[in-house]
Amino acid sequence: QFTALKDLSAIGGGMNSQLLAGMVADVTRLRLHRLSVPAEDATSLGVAAAAGVGAGIFASLREATAGIQAVSTVEPGPTDWRYARNYSVYQGLYAQLALSMHRLVR
Q1: Is 106 helix (H, G, I), strand (E, B) or coil?
Q2: Which of 14, 40, 51, 82 is 20 to 30 A distant from 88 in Cα terms?
Q3: Residue 60: exposed, middle, or buried by beta-carbon count in 10 A (0-12, 13-18, 19+)?
Q4: Chain centroid to CA 1: how far?
């Protein structure tokens, strides 16, 4: 059983572009929070947070990452029929090609 996502958090790269961040929010229909962590530090910070939880320093990942703040939030815009149409095409293509693509990476 999964809990439905309400928000996404992202850092670096394309998320520095308002256009791309807006497209991600629009396509996923989720609020996108751009975080204060520099992209080059994200992996180290994630490992340190997980290690801190494992060592008992923090009770949870939420506690370990409490200092990370959103520097901006991008709300999804009005529903765009092109995204809906193209996403349904992508879902069909993925279902048909998934096995072949997974074989390519073995």
Answers
A1: coil
A2: 14
A3: exposed
A4: 20
